[in-house]
Write a structure and sequence with these properties.
The chain has about 325 residues and is an alpha/beta fold. Helix content is about 45%, strand content about 15%. The protein has 13 helices and eleven strands. The strands form two sheets. The protein has an eight-stranded parallel barrel with strand order 1-2-3-4-7-8-9-11, surrounded by eight helices. A two-stranded antiparallel ribbon has the order 5-6. Strand 3, helix 3 and strand 4 form a beta-alpha-beta unit. Helix 3 packs across helix 5 and helix 6 packs parallel to helix 7. It is globular, with a radius of gyration of 19 Å.
């Protein structure tokens, strides 16, 4: 049976509220959780962006859930820092933490003042960073001079089990390339033919570990409210690469999305007031072969989501879901 997890969006809720949310998510039957790692929200309307690594320690300590985080080592974060942070969480909470390592977005990385590299350079930097993180996780003292530099770094508290480093991918090419180094794959809801091709590209090139899907969804008692929520909160997340990689601030995302309408948002978010329709969509994703599905409700008011929507979905999709 596919694992059903909860996505904690740091851009949309305060870290204090998100901590309560993941605790509540566990109580009603979510089996795992993951979170974003931003310093800038996608929109001023979202208006949040807590520090994921501080929050993860609290979330892991106050639940029994397994957690993941999407991160971009190489610019905003030196890979030695990410190796240190992830090794500590792995040592404290064995088998309960994974990280997805991506090539990054300018909105988070430009704060260093360094040049924003082209995509190929970012990908090479990512692959270097993953190798360095894994070497540090073994206790090796590491020096390196490449797209990132490292001088005699060593970690003294190591994870008892290897921390899985999975690949976040939105394209078939990235999925194919990631197969060489990743411990798993995670992507977002897209047309079924694209998702099939991505999973096949990853698996057929030797990709190991679970394949996971993050599903953006909007639900409310009325279709009109669900649509309004999706349009308000997620219209800044409808851009195709490279625009989504290269815009620098929430102001720029808001300006670029001012004419985005419901049709475009509906391609990025599953929108319906009908729980059965959402279940149908989720079962279709299960049938594509995903091992894990993380539900991301794109609204900011989670009370009705937890009280009405999530228990009904979990009761159908998990063995131990809420009644």
């Amino acid at each position: 049976m596919t694992l059903i997890g909860f996505h904690a969006s740091h851009e949309q809720l305060s870290p204090r509220e998100l901590l309560r949310d993941v605790q509540r998510a566990e109580r009603i039957g979510f089996q795992a959780a993951m979170c974003s790692d931003h310093i800038e929200p996608w929109s001023e309307r979202q208006g949040h962006s807590g520090f994921a690594w501080s929050w993860l320690g609290a979330a892991l300590a106050t639940t029994d859930l397994r957690f993941g985080v999407v991160n971009a080592p190489g610019q905003r974060y030196h890979p030695a820092i990410i190796a240190h942070a992830s090794a500590t969480l792995g040592q404290m909470f064995p088998g309960r933490f994974w990280m997805a390592a991506g090539s990054g977005e300018n909105m988070n990385e430009h704060i260093t003042g360094d040049e924003w590299p082209d995509k190929e350079t970012r990908q090479l930097r990512l692959e270097e960073s993953v190798d360095l993180i894994r070497r540090l996780h073994t206790g090796e003292r590491v020096s390196h001079d490449g797209l990132v530099r490292m001088d005699r770094a060593k970690l003294w508290d190591l994870p008892e089990q290897p921390v899985p480093i999975v690949a976040p991918a939105v394209s078939v090419e990235t999925a194919r390339r990631s197969a060489a180094w990743a411990d798993g794959l995670i992507t977002i809801n897209q047309p079924h033919d694209v998702l099939r091709e991505m999973v096949d590209a990853y698996r057929s090139n030797g990709g190991r570990g679970p394949v996971a899907l993050q599903v953006h969804l909007a639900w409310a008692p009325s279709r009109e409210e669900a649509e309004a929520t999706a349009l308000d909160q997620w219209r800044t997340n409808t851009f195709s690469p490279p625009k989504c990689w290269d815009l620098a601030t929430s102001d720029e995302f808001d300006a670029e999305s001012r004419n985005i309408g419901l049709e475009e948002v509906s391609r990025a978010v599953r929108i319906s007031s009908d729980v059965e329709q959402h279940l149908e969509w989720l079962r279709e994703y299960e049938a594509l072969g995903f091992d894990e599905i993380y539900l991301h409700y794109v609204g900011q008011d989670h009370d009705r989501y937890f009280d009405q929507f999530a228990p009904a979905v979990l009761a159908e999709l998990t063995e131990g879901g809420a009644a």
